[in-house]
Specification:
Strands 2-1-3-4 form a four-stranded parallel beta sheet. The protein is 38% helix and 15% strand. By secondary structure, the protein is of the alpha/beta class. It has four helices and four strands; from the N terminus they run E-H-E-H-E-H-E-H. The model has no long low-confidence stretch (mean pLDDT 91). 37% of the residues are buried. Helix 1 crosses helix 4 and helix 2 crosses helix 4. Strand 1, helix 1 and strand 2 form a beta-alpha-beta unit. It has a single domain, classed as Response regulator (Rossmann fold).
């Protein structure tokens, strides 16, 4: 399937630093031949190093990703919009042109207090939840 024919999936989060980046990485890894994956945020920042680390642990490299502003995707033929945090659902209730919109309420691993090991454990749990949700999405929509 050519890129022109692949349905575009946009994962949205407030800062586009953790959850949306991991979801983009999983969709590219699991079904990059069937979907064009992207992620963006209402605010742009940098990719959280812990997200890069926990994805690398399972062989998915997102170190080349960068934070993108949601506005750059308006009018770009996005078929699916998936919000991965409650703040984004509230901040971006309508996405121009999207045919399908889903919301996944996923905990923000970057906001969890604790030691480095405790925080990494949360990042791993969130990573695994995102992987499960992406697999479910692909099974239903591909």
């Amino acid at each position: 399937m050519t890129d022109m024919m692949k349905p575009k999936v946009l994962f949205l989060c407030i800062q586009n630093s953790c959850r949306s980046q991991m979801a983009e990485g999983f969709l590219r890894h699991i079904a990059g031949d069937r979907f064009e994956a992207a992620s963006a945020g209402a605010e742009t920042t940098r990719i959280n190093p812990a997200a890069i680390d926990v994805m690398g642990e399972i062989g998915i490299d997102i170190s080349g990703h960068h934070s993108k502003d949601v506005a750059q995707f308006w009018g770009k033929g996005v078929r699916y919009v998936i919000t991965v945090c409650d703040k984004t659902k509230e901040a971006c209730p309508i996405f121009p042109g999207a045919i399908w919109k889903f919301h996944w309420s996923i905990e923000d691993p970057a906001s969890v207090p604790g030691s480095d090991d405790e925080r990494l454990a949360v990042f791993r749990r969130v990573r695994d939840e995102i992987e499960m949700r992406v697999q479910e999405f692909v099974a239903k929509e591909a």
